Amino acid sequence: MRADVTTLDAASAGAVELSDAIFNLEPRADILHRMVRWQQLKRMAGTHHAQDRSEVNVTGKKMFKQKGTGGARHGDKSVQQWRGGGKAFGPKPRSHAIGMTKKVRALALRHALSTKAKAGELVVLDRAVAPEGKTKTLKARFEKLGLTNALFIDGSELDDGFARAARNIPNIDVLPIEGINVYDILRRKKLVLTKAAVDALEARFKI
User: Fold this and answer.
1) Is residue 201 within 8 Å of residue 177, measured between CB atoms?
2) pLDDT for 82-107, tens place per residue?
3) What is the DSSP string of 84-133?
4) Residue pair 153/197 in contact by the 8 Å Cβ criterion
5) What is the rounded distance in angstroms from the CA atom of residue 4 to the CA atom of residue 123?
6) Cα separation, 39 vs 24, whole angstroms
């Protein structure tokens, strides 16, 4: 498929041929859902912790005599039914990550890219460069392009001025090609790829 290339000043910079194997798949919501869930579970800290009866700091003395009280027999104050006792089956530190093969993860990324392309929410940019590094100037350029909620993907190295100016603009994310992921693609309205990013993606998938 063919896509027009634009500059930050909203001027035409020719066109580029996009691979159908990356940008023209029929999007599958089930694969995208699995990938987003995999990402969210993988980044969960899993540091929740509740003390069980072996960890609470209580006396080990028998609470009252075994017989003659007319009540139930108890011998340990650390059990869960007493105030200050340990929690039964409480959460413990663990990993929430689930398994997913590399092939499925790669396929999910291609489906996410195809989703943006088919929805008309893919923009190909000539270069993502802002030598002056001014947020106000860059924001005005984005508004001219209609980019108020977008993810920018550049090559392996980001332009320092562009990244510095863009980080102060709400709903704008900038990532190098190594950081491209399904969750960030889907959470923003527009996906903006530089020509360097397009070349890197085609090399990555060996198209």
Assistant:
1) yes
2) 999 999 999 999 999 999 999 999 99
3) TPPPTT------------HHHHHHHHHHHHHHHHHTT-EEEES----TT-
4) yes
5) 8
6) 24
Please answer whether residues 112 and 32 qualify as being in contact, where contact means their C-beta atoms are separated by less than 8 angstroms.
yes
- Least Cα distance to 162 among 192, 198, 202 occurs for 192
Break the chain into its structural domains and give their ranges.
2-44+98-204, 47-95
From residue 173, alpha-carbon distances to 91, 110, 112, 122, 204 in Å are 34, 20, 17, 15, 22
Is the distance from CB of 184 to CB of 193 less than 8 angstroms?
A: no
Chain CA centroid to CA 82, Å? 42
Looking at residue 6, the DSSP 8-state letter turns out to be E
- The model's pLDDT over 103-138, given as tens digits with 9 standing for 90+, comes to 999 999 999 999 999 999 999 999 999 988 899 999
Residue 26 pLDDT more than 60? yes
* CATH numeric code, 2-44+98-204: 3.40.1370.10
Number of DSSP helices (H) and strands (E) in the chain, helices first:
7, 6
Cβ atoms 128, 5 nearer than 8 A: no
Mean pLDDT, the chain, rounded, equals: 94
Contact at 8 Å (CB) between 162 and 128?
yes
pTM, two decimal places: 0.84
